[in-house]
Write a structure and sequence with these properties.
Layout (H helix, E strand, L loop, with lengths): L2 H9 L1 E5 L10 E3 L2 H10 L2 E6 L12 H14 L7 E4 L4 H20 L1
Parallel strand pairs: 1-2, 1-3, 3-4
Helix pairs in contact: 2-3, 3-4
Length: 112
């Protein structure tokens, strides 16, 4: 990792959750929901982009698990700063489910 990468991590963190796609420039790549949630707990994340299918749903989890964790934080943790959330999954039914969760988060943030 170059010094510039460290600055991105601490100043303008963007997380990209995906097990197969290449991490875009400017993002920190993670492969599991656990890694993504740990980053959200540890850093002030500006943006997160979520894939749904990450291999073994039972053992690893899905991108929706991260979205559900964010939703819980938005509703129960007044100190939580919600990042901008993007969904990049190719799974159409999972995308619909995740978009419903995203709408719930956005509604709560509008009314807070």
């Amino acid at each position: 990792m170059r010094l510039v990468d460290y600055l991105i991590v601490y100043e303008d963190m963007k997380i990209y959750l995906d097990d197969k796609r290449k991490t875009p420039v400017g993002y920190v790549g993670v492969k599991t929901p656990k890694q993504a949630i740990n980053m959200l707990k540890k850093y002030d994340v500006k943006e997160i982009s979520l894939d749904h299918d990450l291999g073994d749903d039972e053992k690893i989890g899905t991108g929706n698990d991260v979205l559900l964790w964010i939703e819980k934080q938005v509703f129960t943790n007044k100190k939580f700063k919600c990042p901008e959330i993007k969904i990049h999954t190719a799974n159409p039914s999972a995308r619909k489910k995740m978009e419903l969760g995203l709408r719930s988060i956005k509604r709560k943030l509008r009314w807070s």
